[in-house]
TrEMBL record:
UniProt lineage: Bacteria, Pseudomonadati, Bacteroidota, Flavobacteriia, Flavobacteriales
Protein name per the record: Tyrosine recombinase XerC
Domain Core-binding (CB): 1-87
HAMAP family registered for this protein in UniProt: Recomb_XerC_XerD
UniProt source species: Winogradskyella litorisediminis
This protein's record includes keyword Cell cycle: yes
Active site: R153, K177, H248, R251, H274, Y283 (o-(3'-phospho-dna)-tyrosine intermediate)
Amino acid sequence: MKWREAINDYETFLKIERGLLQNSIDSYVYDILRIQKFLNENDIKESPIEISQETVQNFVYQISKELNPRSQARIISGLRNFFDYLVFEKYREANPVDQIESPRLGLKLPDTLSIADIDLIISAIDLNYQFRGVNLGHRNKAILETLYSCGLRVSELTNLKISDLFFEEGFIKVKGKGNKERFVPIGKNTQKLIDIWLDIRKHIDVKQESKDVLFLNYKGNQLTRAMVFTIIKKLVEKVGLQKTVSPHTFRHSFATHLLENGADLRSIQMMLGHESITTTEIYTHIDKSQLNKVINTYHPRK
C-alpha cells in the first residue's frame, strides 16, 4: 500500500465513520504528509505498512528541533490515530507510534475576554456599514452576539441554518464535531439581532445552495470561517485592544463567565458540546486563577 492510497482511505474513514469536518480532516492529513516528506528527504523507501518504530522515532527527533512541544504532541497524536486505523483495517500488525512518548505539556489556559472587553468590541461595530448595497453592520453584530451568547465554534456558527432556529422555545440546534447535534439556549437580545439580520437578508440574492444558511456574505454565499476571523480582527484593532482575539476567544469567554457566575460544569459541558467533562474542567483552572488574583489583591496577608 502506497502513502497516497493509505491517506485517501484514512480521509474517507474520518469523513464517513467519524463525521469530521473537512478542516479537521485536512489537519490530520497535513501531519501525515510531514512524515512522508521526511521519508522522501532522507531517501527512506518505507510504505505506511512497512515503516518502523525507529523511523518514526527519527522523524519525531527531527520535528523536536523545529516545533514547540504542543505542535509535536499534536503530530504524534495524529500519527498514532493514523496507524491505529491501519492496524484496525489489518494493513499492519502493530502501531509504530505506540512506544513513542509525547512531550510533556504545561497546562495552557484559554484566552478570555472580560465582559467590558466584549462590550467594547461589539459597541465598535458600525451598524450603518454597507458593502455593495448590503447592510453588513447588523450581520456582524448578530454574529458576535451569537458567538458569545451561545458559545459556538466558528464552524458551528457559519454552518448555522435558519431551520435550526427555535426562537419560541428559546433554543438553537447546533451541529458540532462528529455531526453531533445539541440544543443551546439563546437569549432574547441575540434573537432580536438575528431577526434584524433576517429582514436584511431578504433583500440579498441568495445562492441556491445557501438558501437555508443563516449568515451570508454580500454575494449571497455562506460566510466563511476566515471572514469571521477578519471581522473580529478589524474590530479589535479599531478599539486598540492589546489582546489576541479569535472567534474561539468568545467561546472561551462564554464558558468562563458562566462558571464565574455560578453555572455548574455539567451544564456548561452540554452547551459547549464537549464529549468529555474533563475537557470542560479546564475552565475550573481559570476560575481558580481568578480566586488567586482576588486573594493577592485584597487579602491583608497577601
